Amino acid sequence: MGQFDTGAIFESLDSFVRTHTEVAAALVVALGALALVVYAGIRFKRPMGTRFAEALEGVDEIAVLMHPNPDPDAMAAAIGVACLAEQVGTTPTIQFAGQIRHQENRAFRTVLDLDLDPIDHVSDLAAEAVVLVDHNAPRGFAGAEGVLPYAVVDHHPGDGTGEAFTDVRTDYGACSSIVAEYFRDVGAKPVPPDMHASEVNASYTVPSQVATGLVYGILTDTKHLTAGCSAADFDAAGFLFPGVNEDHLDRIANPEVSREVLEAKARAIAGRDVRGPFAVADIGTISNVDAIPQAADELIQLEGVTAAVVCGERESNVYLSGRSRDDRVHMGRTLESALDHYRGASAGGHARMGGGQIIRPDAVTDGGDGESVPRDELVEHIFEALSGDI
Asked: What is the pTM of this model?
């Protein structure tokens, strides 16, 4: 068998390049473009968790920002992101606007001993790089509209994006499930409650506190994995289970219930207006607005009711919360439609649950005395929206 004459081959190539410079240049450009395509393909086929960890590693510190009045899913996602950030050498600060009022939310914060910083103004943000969790558009504090997020991790519909990273999965029941996947993507191992992270043979770990929080976040946003969830939510809970502290989970899930919450539930049931499969209840004036969603949770349990909305008033502002197990009723859109008649109103949510508020009742456009929202009229708008008559 003959041998290749490499010298002759290079001489021929050199001659070809000299006599066909345009073709040679085009080949170089084409090969460069092909190399970029291959590189991009390899890069973007990497797991989202790996890409997110690299995005976190790219900055010295981050502000992990939850939505206003954060619930367990938002808090769990935030502590998960903060934990991953710390493990790549980035300093996190978890922040939120509004308050943490619901007894379940307060229990979550207390039992897991979470360090969460409240903010009122954009200047209160702890870092220039802001990571939004469980929402994709900053809101709830002065100057929020001027914040350009560094990263967004969410499961709600919306167009918000992050400068370095965006992951919005509307088919997931909980943001906590997405964050749990990030840990799994980087090969992390949950730490059992009776062990220390140093005893787990892994470069990345999920501390028991974080695993417990993420599992509870999944459970609360999917009604204990019975509604609005996907296979990914079950997989995430299964992955986290070895790290769950069952005692902490029980203490979060079963906090003491205040007298006002029990009274709100009783008023919702006793004063409900039921029309076909839909129920609406106006529970009047309350001091704790978090009693409203808890009353809605109770009302949807009534036999024959497939969608329920509860409204109440605090300091002249009206708040609504809805629940649906009716495929005909997307609760988030329903409340948006019901409040479309009022200026200063906002609403939204998922197919199974939603919330809304009228913060400026003096700006009612179609009725009212300038001081309060005409409640009978509001109830009618809600029923019209529930029935699709919009």
From this structure: 0.69
